[in-house]
Amino acid sequence: MRRDEKHIDIERIAEGDHGTFRRMFIQYYPKLKSFINRLVKSEEVAEDLSQDIFEYIWVNRKDLSDLKSLEGYLFGIARNKACNYLTHKTVEEDYISSCTAGLAGYMPDEEIQAKELELLIRMTVEQMPEQRRRVFVMSRVENLKNAEIAEKLNIFKKTVENHLNHALNRIREVIALALIFFF
Predict the structure, then answer these.
(1) Half-sphere exposure of 52 (CA within 13 A, CB side)
(2) What digits encode the pLDDT tens for the residues 102-126?
(3) CA-CA to 147 of 20 to 30 Å: which in 71, 77, 105, 173?
(4) Which helix (H) or strand (E) element contains residue 31?
Protein backbone atom coordinates (compact mmCIF):
# COMPACT_ATOMS: atom_id res chain seq x y z
CA MET A 1 0.00 0.00 0.00
CA ARG A 2 1.41 3.39 -0.99
CA ARG A 3 1.85 6.28 1.36
CA ASP A 4 -1.09 8.20 -0.14
CA GLU A 5 -3.40 5.21 0.31
CA LYS A 6 -2.31 4.81 3.96
CA HIS A 7 -3.04 8.46 4.62
CA ILE A 8 -6.45 8.11 2.98
CA ASP A 9 -7.14 5.09 5.25
CA ILE A 10 -6.20 7.14 8.32
CA GLU A 11 -8.61 9.86 7.23
CA ARG A 12 -11.39 7.32 6.61
CA ILE A 13 -10.92 5.78 10.06
CA ALA A 14 -10.90 9.29 11.59
CA GLU A 15 -14.25 9.89 9.89
CA GLY A 16 -15.67 6.63 11.33
CA ASP A 17 -15.43 4.27 8.34
CA HIS A 18 -16.04 0.80 9.83
CA GLY A 19 -14.87 -1.08 6.72
CA THR A 20 -11.48 0.65 6.66
CA PHE A 21 -11.10 0.15 10.43
CA ARG A 22 -11.94 -3.56 10.04
CA ARG A 23 -9.34 -3.90 7.26
CA MET A 24 -6.74 -2.14 9.43
CA PHE A 25 -7.62 -4.46 12.35
CA ILE A 26 -7.21 -7.57 10.17
CA GLN A 27 -3.88 -6.27 8.84
CA TYR A 28 -2.26 -5.13 12.11
CA TYR A 29 -3.82 -7.21 14.91
CA PRO A 30 -1.63 -10.33 14.38
CA LYS A 31 1.53 -8.19 14.13
CA LEU A 32 0.72 -6.18 17.25
CA LYS A 33 -0.25 -9.29 19.22
CA SER A 34 3.01 -11.01 18.26
CA PHE A 35 5.05 -7.90 19.12
CA ILE A 36 3.39 -7.53 22.53
CA ASN A 37 3.64 -11.26 23.24
CA ARG A 38 7.42 -11.09 22.78
CA LEU A 39 7.54 -8.34 25.39
CA VAL A 40 5.10 -9.63 28.01
CA LYS A 41 5.56 -13.39 27.43
CA SER A 42 1.82 -14.12 27.70
CA GLU A 43 -0.51 -14.90 24.82
CA GLU A 44 -3.60 -13.92 26.81
CA VAL A 45 -2.17 -10.60 27.92
CA ALA A 46 -0.98 -9.89 24.37
CA GLU A 47 -4.50 -10.52 23.05
CA ASP A 48 -6.06 -8.24 25.67
CA LEU A 49 -3.59 -5.44 25.12
CA SER A 50 -3.92 -5.69 21.33
CA GLN A 51 -7.69 -5.43 21.58
CA ASP A 52 -7.32 -2.48 23.96
CA ILE A 53 -5.20 -0.72 21.35
CA PHE A 54 -7.84 -1.06 18.67
CA GLU A 55 -10.55 0.03 21.07
CA TYR A 56 -8.43 3.08 21.92
CA ILE A 57 -7.90 3.83 18.22
CA TRP A 58 -11.63 3.66 17.51
CA VAL A 59 -12.63 5.77 20.52
CA ASN A 60 -9.98 8.40 19.67
CA ARG A 61 -10.28 8.10 15.88
CA LYS A 62 -10.86 11.84 15.41
CA ASP A 63 -7.31 12.48 16.66
CA LEU A 64 -5.84 10.29 13.89
CA SER A 65 -6.14 12.84 11.07
CA ASP A 66 -2.75 14.41 11.90
CA LEU A 67 -0.87 11.09 11.84
CA LYS A 68 1.90 10.48 9.33
CA SER A 69 2.26 6.76 10.01
CA LEU A 70 -0.50 4.59 11.42
CA GLU A 71 1.88 1.64 11.77
CA GLY A 72 4.38 3.65 13.81
CA TYR A 73 1.56 4.98 15.95
CA LEU A 74 0.14 1.48 16.57
CA PHE A 75 3.50 -0.01 17.53
CA GLY A 76 4.28 2.98 19.76
CA ILE A 77 1.03 2.42 21.63
CA ALA A 78 1.77 -1.33 21.77
CA ARG A 79 5.21 -0.70 23.27
CA ASN A 80 3.77 1.71 25.86
CA LYS A 81 0.93 -0.67 26.80
CA ALA A 82 3.38 -3.56 27.20
CA CYS A 83 5.74 -1.44 29.34
CA ASN A 84 2.85 -0.23 31.49
CA TYR A 85 1.64 -3.80 31.94
CA LEU A 86 5.11 -5.01 32.95
CA THR A 87 5.57 -2.11 35.36
CA HIS A 88 2.18 -2.77 36.93
CA LYS A 89 2.94 -6.49 37.18
CA THR A 90 6.27 -5.77 38.90
CA VAL A 91 4.64 -3.40 41.40
CA GLU A 92 1.91 -5.96 42.07
CA GLU A 93 4.43 -8.77 42.63
CA ASP A 94 6.51 -6.57 44.94
CA TYR A 95 3.41 -5.70 46.93
CA ILE A 96 2.38 -9.35 47.22
CA SER A 97 5.92 -10.27 48.31
CA SER A 98 5.95 -7.58 50.97
CA CYS A 99 2.53 -8.71 52.24
CA THR A 100 3.53 -12.35 52.45
CA ALA A 101 6.86 -11.42 54.05
CA GLY A 102 4.90 -9.50 56.68
CA LEU A 103 2.74 -12.54 57.33
CA ALA A 104 5.78 -14.78 57.80
CA GLY A 105 6.18 -13.42 61.35
CA TYR A 106 2.46 -13.54 62.05
CA MET A 107 1.24 -15.97 64.69
CA PRO A 108 -2.40 -16.75 65.44
CA ASP A 109 -3.64 -15.86 68.93
CA GLU A 110 -3.57 -19.45 70.15
CA GLU A 111 0.05 -19.85 69.14
CA ILE A 112 1.01 -16.59 70.86
CA GLN A 113 -0.78 -17.67 74.02
CA ALA A 114 0.96 -21.05 73.95
CA LYS A 115 4.35 -19.35 73.60
CA GLU A 116 3.52 -17.01 76.48
CA LEU A 117 2.46 -19.93 78.69
CA GLU A 118 5.63 -21.79 77.81
CA LEU A 119 7.68 -18.74 78.80
CA LEU A 120 5.71 -18.40 82.03
CA ILE A 121 6.36 -22.08 82.89
CA ARG A 122 10.08 -21.66 82.18
CA MET A 123 10.23 -18.60 84.42
CA THR A 124 8.37 -20.46 87.16
CA VAL A 125 10.77 -23.41 86.92
CA GLU A 126 13.78 -21.07 87.06
CA GLN A 127 12.49 -19.59 90.33
CA MET A 128 12.19 -23.00 92.03
CA PRO A 129 14.74 -24.15 94.57
CA GLU A 130 17.73 -25.74 92.85
CA GLN A 131 17.00 -29.37 93.80
CA ARG A 132 13.31 -29.12 92.80
CA ARG A 133 14.27 -27.44 89.51
CA ARG A 134 16.83 -30.18 88.78
CA VAL A 135 14.27 -32.94 89.50
CA PHE A 136 11.63 -31.26 87.32
CA VAL A 137 14.02 -30.77 84.36
CA MET A 138 15.27 -34.35 84.59
CA SER A 139 11.69 -35.64 84.66
CA ARG A 140 9.96 -33.39 82.12
CA VAL A 141 12.77 -32.30 79.79
CA GLU A 142 15.16 -35.26 79.91
CA ASN A 143 12.29 -37.79 80.31
CA LEU A 144 13.97 -39.74 83.09
CA LYS A 145 11.96 -42.03 85.37
CA ASN A 146 11.66 -41.18 89.03
CA ALA A 147 13.92 -44.08 90.03
CA GLU A 148 16.62 -42.91 87.59
CA ILE A 149 16.44 -39.36 88.95
CA ALA A 150 16.69 -40.66 92.54
CA GLU A 151 19.73 -42.71 91.63
CA LYS A 152 21.49 -39.86 89.78
CA LEU A 153 20.86 -37.32 92.53
CA ASN A 154 21.44 -39.84 95.31
CA ILE A 155 18.06 -39.17 96.92
CA PHE A 156 15.00 -41.29 97.73
CA LYS A 157 12.42 -41.97 95.07
CA LYS A 158 9.76 -40.53 97.40
CA THR A 159 11.76 -37.28 97.59
CA VAL A 160 11.77 -37.10 93.78
CA GLU A 161 7.98 -37.58 93.79
CA ASN A 162 7.55 -34.84 96.41
CA HIS A 163 9.71 -32.39 94.42
CA LEU A 164 7.71 -33.15 91.25
CA ASN A 165 4.38 -32.70 93.07
CA HIS A 166 5.47 -29.34 94.50
CA ALA A 167 6.84 -28.22 91.11
CA LEU A 168 3.68 -29.22 89.22
CA ASN A 169 1.42 -27.62 91.85
CA ARG A 170 3.36 -24.35 91.59
CA ILE A 171 3.15 -24.42 87.79
CA ARG A 172 -0.62 -25.07 87.97
CA GLU A 173 -1.06 -22.12 90.35
CA VAL A 174 0.89 -19.78 88.08
CA ILE A 175 -1.01 -20.93 84.98
CA ALA A 176 -4.36 -20.55 86.76
CA LEU A 177 -3.48 -16.98 87.79
CA ALA A 178 -2.26 -16.20 84.28
CA LEU A 179 -5.46 -17.55 82.75
CA ILE A 180 -7.58 -15.47 85.13
CA PHE A 181 -5.69 -12.21 84.63
CA PHE A 182 -4.22 -12.32 81.13
CA PHE A 183 -6.09 -14.70 78.84
Answers:
(1) 16
(2) 555 555 677 777 788 888 888 899 8
(3) 173
(4) helix 18-40
